[in-house]
Amino acid sequence: MSGYDxxxxxxxxxxxxxxxxxxxxxxxxxxxxxxQYNPFPPPATHVPTPRAAPSSAAPYQPAVLQPSTEPSxxxxxxxxxxxxxxxxxxxxxxxxxxxxxxxxxxxxxPTGKQNNWPPLPKSFPIKPCFYQDFSEEIPPQYxxxxxxxxxxxxxxxxxxFLNLLSCAAHFFVDTKRGIDxxxxxxxxxxxxxxxxxxxxxPVYKAFRTDSSFSFFFFFFVFFCQVVIFIIxxxxxxxxxxxxxxxxxxxxxxxxxxxxxxTVAILFTICAVLSVVLLKMVHSMYRRTGASFxxxxxxxxxxxxxxxxxxxxATSAAASASQGAFQQNN
Length: 329
Known about the structure:
mainly alpha; elongated; single chain; 10 helices
């Protein structure tokens, strides 16, 4: 019965879960933290941090307006002179560059290629005047004849040089032959460049460009050259040629006679080769379709498109118009 005397609503002794020491410690520590927390703390007084004093305090100075310094007239003139000198040097440099380019252009052929004839060393003061390349500029079917014309020119030049030596030897034996020596020197100096310019270069240009005018010019000049070769081979006395007549008429010195006969043979070979090559060039000319009408057309076109002709025509027209204007006034 003693069990029924207890109060059923009374808390049982020794069974309080919050009486556990671990729970009690955590609960007490949490409450203390909450009680100590103040959501409105007092404002903290700001204490300024002292700054380091500058090592040297600059005294106060009033603002002073500095006067503007203008260059003196002497300085301005010196600067202008220096500028002019600099511009002059620049112009001189550009002029030298233009001169160099102009010399390079003058050293080139009309086709824009570097001239290679005559073959001269680079240190030589005279530069090549023409461009010549058979394999590049001459069609294959004309290369053989064109080269033969070139060899004929070289052979004729050599013959003229030997003719000069022959006349000199003849003059040393007989001083009355001074005229022959003088004329031999003249023929060598005159015919060597003229033959190259007057009949070899025209035929080279004719084969290169198929120019009717160049062909006609070559035929006219080379026919005259054939006549000259024949006269030189004949050897008229006092004409400056060691031909057959001059060689046979003078038998006083056998050495000189041998030299003169050799030169007469060379002149004869030049005459024969020139006739043969003239016929070969003429046959090729007929196969190219060239004609006298085309030559006239090329001549007129070349004349009217020439800058020299255009300048002369312009100046003549300006002079005529100026004269007519003055007469009207």
